Amino acid sequence: MYPDHAPHVPAQRAAEVHQPTPLPPAVAVSAPVVPVQPGSVPAVASIALPDGRVVTGYAINPVHPEPVAAKPAVSQTAVNVALGGVGFLAVCGGLILLTSFIAALTALITQLIILAAVIFGGWIAVQLFSASDHQSGGTTVNIRKAVIKRNKFYR
After folding, report:
1. Beta strand 44-48 with 147-149: parallel, antiparallel or unpaired?
2. Whether residue 118 has pLDDT greater than 60
3. What is the pTM of this model?
């Protein structure tokens, strides 16, 4: 892949050092600060860490949220009425679907009956018209020459 005469020494790049550029201080126009004396001066606490450092700061008391007012309980009657309404709507929807299904099924059966009647009627018409056109495949009995004995035809 590489030609034999090419050196395989990794390329050395010059390292560039970027120094941060200081930003000019922002000039803020603000409302005049009015000192307000706190209601009570918090106590300053100092803590000595195991490595010898001393941390000094104000003690912060944990904030306790106010208790939430208890919600009034929902009456069992209201729950029953709501569930009954939902059940009634479900039953009504089911009956509407059932009615539409029955109507569609009735229309399908009606169309199948009509289709069968058309096909059967066409078959009968073909049989009638084909029998009058040519005499093939059937037995023709001349009734005037036939003799009837004991409900049987003899020729």
Report:
1. unpaired
2. yes
3. 0.34
